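Hmm, how's this folded?
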Amino acid sequence: MDDKRKDDVFYVCTLIEYISRETHNHRKDVISCFNKNDLTRQLRVAELNHCLSFGQVSDELIEEYNISNGDYDTVAECKYTVPSVTSIGRVYQMLVLSVYKDDDVEQAIIDVFSSFISDEISEFNSNVYYSNPDYLRCSYLEGRMLE
């Protein structure tokens, strides 16, 4: 995968994190609003959207996909410094890139954000989001957090 494509994956992962925070939803609830074709489109326009604010792009997608507000607010519940949206986007990007198969990065994005590990990464009072990327990959593949 070339660097541009990796950057596009980073942008889309960060955008999903941003939308989730804005709408107070689990990441799996936000990703469920998108299908593979939607993600293909978002990856294709990522370079253009990158010039816009996350707020603007997020607002447009929230409206277009009718993403309603939830009650999952990990930012408000965080007792420590909240990691930036881009920091968490990078965590997801590295995990997605480490597990995708057959050049189907869209499915990997859906699978990672829909899995148990998404709530683990979003628990900002834990140390999961800054864990070793290999540990996250192995835990994801195992289907549970490894000890």
User: Anything to note?
Assistant: The chain is about 65% helix and 0% strand.
